[in-house]
Amino acid sequence: MSHFESLDPLFHPRSIALAGITTANPEHWTRVFLDALTEIGFERPIYLVNPKGGKIQGHKVYRSLRDIPGTVDYVISTVPAQASPGLVEECDTKGVRAIHFCTAGFSETGEEEGARLEAQLVEASRRKGIRIIGPNCMGIYCPQSRLSFGVGFPQESGHVAFVSQSGGNAGGLVRQAAWRGVRFSKVISYGNACDLNESDFLEYLADDPDTKIIGLYIEGVKDGARFHRALERAAKEKVVVLLKGGITHGGTRAAAGHTGSLAGDEVIWDALCRQFGIIRVYSLEEMADILQTLLFLPIPEGRNVALIGAGGGNSVLIADEFEKKGLIVPQLPQEIIHRIREFSPAAGNILRNPIDYSQTIMETGKLGELVSIVSGWESIDFLIGFLDLSGFASPQPSTSGALSRWADGMFEMIPASSKPIAMVPQLSVVPEDANELMIIAQAFVSSQVPTYMSFAGAANSINLLLTYKESYAGRLKALRV
Amino acid sequence: MSHFESLDPLFHPRSIALAGITTANPEHWTRVFLDALTEIGFERPIYLVNPKGGKIQGHKVYRSLRDIPGTVDYVISTVPAQASPGLVEECDTKGVRAIHFCTAGFSETGEEEGARLEAQLVEASRRKGIRIIGPNCMGIYCPQSRLSFGVGFPQESGHVAFVSQSGGNAGGLVRQAAWRGVRFSKVISYGNACDLNESDFLEYLADDPDTKIIGLYIEGVKDGARFHRALERAAKEKVVVLLKGGITHGGTRAAAGHTGSLAGDEVIWDALCRQFGIIRVYSLEEMADILQTLLFLPIPEGRNVALIGAGGGNSVLIADEFEKKGLIVPQLPQEIIHRIREFSPAAGNILRNPIDYSQTIMETGKLGELVSIVSGWESIDFLIGFLDLSGFASPQPSTSGALSRWADGMFEMIPASSKPIAMVPQLSVVPEDANELMIIAQAFVSSQVPTYMSFAGAANSINLLLTYKESYAGRLKALRV
Predict the structure, then answer these.
(1) What is the CATH number of the domain that holds A164?
(2) What is the CATH number of the domain that holds A103?
(3) pLDDT over threshold 70, residue A116
(4) Range in A355-364, B272-281, B303-312 with the lowest mean pLDDT
């Protein structure tokens, strides 16, 4: 049996037991798995287990795994650390293939007792032939098989896998990326990795036909040589994006406390990424940005961009951000300026590149006409529409209707462009604006237009895509099939 | 008469004429000055001028400046560029000291006609002895004299001046910084700077007793040698923060198109900042961050920080961000861990530094107790409370009440800390969370606690403060008097 075949059943359980779910408090954290599985519609048996027995939402709570009629494929455990080794023994009688131990309190505490309990888990599971995910993690989200650990996660499947040592970062990435249109094949939060670890999941995903992009959040690895091989192979089969946690002394110590990981040398990680062709990011937001870019931005031919928005000061700052990242903002030629001037005043507009179209942006049709001319200019490879509320003099652009007219103008740009186009409604840190900008951003996302929340984020992500394309164009081609 | 004395009257006009205000459409951009002056309560005469005459909100609209009874101190002009030189001639008859030309369409267009009109403005104003602010800018906000160009700007005065070539960036900074508690002495948007330029305002502000911090957004300077002297002097008298727009080829060209500026060499700007002790930032958000830091963060003795929040993955990422910026996240000693363990479980908490206090953060009193112990630890100089919604499994932490209980816990930290403390409720880019986080952030700001919207922003700004303090501790002392 191949590695893929041996791990695949974990993602498609025929029945699940939730061991340790609390009966008393519906808001208790142990309830999240029932809530998530119910919401996403897991269609096979879910058994609830708690020594106290009772009922939850009309469903019987078994006092022990042994009391469950029939077999149990997969156990999600929220029992206390002390009771965990005993749970492995119990599972043996029910034909359990894998247990996901959500609970913390093991080796990551740095205390002797936790390390001892984790060693007991490993010993018992090896003896019984049961695989373990965790402990100290959120487990698996696989929309195809209706397996989930987060309320509000998308119902639909996609082609992005995310392997995250941290449960919070796994959920955080799903939520950030999901509203931007990213959908997932498998998301795995694997915590202390006492049995199944990052290499197991990487090897599995390299062979997974449902996965085209693999995102990684890794604090440290269990077996360097094996991970090295797994990463090299995965990077050949899929587009791999890495967020490495614990790249400083403080971060490394935090990683040790979080998942008991040895974080390793930053220089080595950097070299690995260069050697294998792995896209490196430094925050969850950057991870969400690049996933969206890989999925939705048609690949520009080159690095030349036309930036179109409103506001002179914004124009200067966005041009700086793009050129700092190695993108090029070429000068608008006189011939193009003349054509634009035929239907646009010079005063209040700045007909250079960036194009500050303040005076005309809200006039119906004008922005579309501008974009159809500019996108035909042979010196540029892609276009950016930008919006920054700094340019508005009134305190709530939303109430005056100016904001929605501006958004309408930006929507005109999309069909008018003959080249790849993305939008940057820069997220304001002014409270009354943040919500309005998010609504506009969501409308762009719904039209499958790549949408970034900051000038710097857009420039960074598009640079990452183009840098990757310059060496690995072939790997990118497979993404949009 | 000193330079200060000659410019100060511009900030305290005894009467204002709004030349070119539209009578037809109350939402027209030329109305913003009337709206702003009305809102902030300018108490002296405001005369409205438009060749068509008529009335606005019951106030007479004069057909010409000459028709106004009595003298006019200060004119805010929104007349078209072509009519601007004529306006200077008219002003002469009314004793006008200065005209702020808001209108664009001058040298920044790069067209001959615009350059010619701007030269005419300069010639006429020199001949008549009238000073010009602009053209192509928003002019002056001076809450003390009830002068304003933005609806929603704070009524109260403060000690921060901001000199910005861009009107959008001036307004954007005021709005971003204002909600974080920053208040201003004078904000000046000066555009093309055909007469009064950045050096004039810098020289003025260096002597201004109401100003302690000077923020600058500069695209290019008119007279390098004079600016050099003005900057050196200002940096000795005040804390100066610079955002330079146009630091790349593209940004430089954008600056040329925006305010007709020659942006100059990045290397020179960097050297100037080092030489004179100027804090350099690269975005408006960073500018708002550092202004808030300078005003509200008690100056830490050194670079050692304790990071306290919830979420293991977050902890790793925030530790990385702080150490990348040269701050130090020292290891929590056993002695402190033992004291915390007396009232906190090990499972679900991570008692290292960062401290992930997930399991206990919502229990009343516990977070205060934790902070009083940690802030007494001699190896740290300041504390950060952090919050990132990635750690929540449910989709809307706000509805479950978890978010507000968490915020309550963070509020307990403030009085419990014996060392400087700041909060980082990291702004989520997930739509349903952004608004909630802003509400929490506002509550912290209302308590005058420095509040940052990202891990990276907090680390950057505190590093800037400490770097500045390492060379210019004396200049900082004057800030909090």
Answers:
(1) 3.40.50.261
(2) 3.40.50.720
(3) yes
(4) A355-364
- DSSP secondary structure string for all residues of B52-111: T--EETTEEEESSGGGSSS---EEEE-S-GGGHHHHHHHHHTTT--EEEE----SGGG-S
Q: How far does A386 lie from chain B, in Å, by closest CA?
A: 14
**pLDDT for residue B418:** 97
Mean pLDDT over B75-90 rounds to: 95
Q: Is the pLDDT of residue A264 over 70?
A: no
With 90 as the cut, is the pLDDT of residue A37 above it? yes
Beta bridge partners of residue B382, listed in sequence order: B305
Encoding tokens for residue A2? 């191949």
Query: Across chain B, what does the average pLDDT equal?
Result: 92
d(CA B455, CA B203): 36
Q: B259 falls in which pLDDT band (50, 70, 90)?
A: confident
pLDDT, position A396? 55
Interface test with A, best of B316, B436, B446 (most A CBs within 10 A): B316
DSSP string, B359-374: TTTTSTTHHHHHHHHH
- Partners of B356 on chain A (C-beta within 8 Å) are 257-258
Domain residue limits at B453: 305-480
Peptide bond into B45 cis (omega under 30): no
How many Cα neighbours within 13 Å face the side chain of A81?
Answer: 26
Tell me: do B103 and B163 sit in the same domain: no
Q: The tokens 């694997």 sit on which residue? A: A190
Q: Are residues B312 and B270 in the same domain?
A: no
Å between A83 CA and nearest CA of chain B = 13
How far CA B224 is from CA of A204, B227, B236, B271, in Å, comes to 62, 5, 19, 14
Q: Cβ of A453 and B429 within 8 Å?
A: yes
Q: Which of A108, A133, A158 is the last residue of a domain?
A: A133
Residues A308 and A357: beta-carbon distance below 8 Å: yes
**What band does B263 get if pLDDT is binned at 50, 70 and 90?**
low
Could you tell me if A121 and A180 lie in one domain?
no
| CA–CA separation, B383 and B374 (whole Å) | 9
CB contact under 8 A, B391 and A168: yes
Q: Which of A349-353, B76-80, B83-87 has the lowest mean pLDDT?
A: A349-353
Average pLDDT over residues B188-217: 97
The residue that leads in pLDDT, A139 or B220, is A139
Q: What is the DSSP letter of B141?
A: E
- Given a cut of 70, whether residue B394 has pLDDT beyond it is no
Interface contact A393-B171, CB threshold 8 A: yes
The interface predicted TM-score of the complex, written ipTM, equals 0.92
A-chain CB neighbours of B390 within 8 Å are 168-169, 171-173, 175-176, 284
Partner residue opposite B429 with nearest CB, options A285, A311, A392? A285
Give, in degrees to the nearest 5, the angle at Cα A428 between B422 and A389.
145
Is there a single domain that holds both residue A203 and residue A336? no
pTM equals 0.93
| Angle separating helix axes A312-324 and B167-178, nearest 10 degrees | 80
> How many independent structural domains does chain B possess?
3
* B356 and B320 share one domain: yes
Instruction: Check CB contact under 8 Å for B288 and A429.
Output: yes
Which residues on chain B are in Cβ contact (under 8 Å) with A313?
164-170, 172, 217, 245, 258
The answer to whether residue A395 scores a pLDDT higher than 60 is no
Residues B186 and B62 in one domain: no
Per-residue model confidence (pLDDT) at position A249: 83
- One domain, residues B89 and B162: no
Q: Residue A263 has what pLDDT?
A: 60
Q: Are residues A252 and A362 in the same domain?
A: no
Q: Which residues of B418-443 are buried (b: 16+ CB within 10 A; e: fewer)?
A: ebbbbbbbbbbbbbbbbebbbebbbb
Give the domain-ending residue among B133, B155, B179. Answer: B133
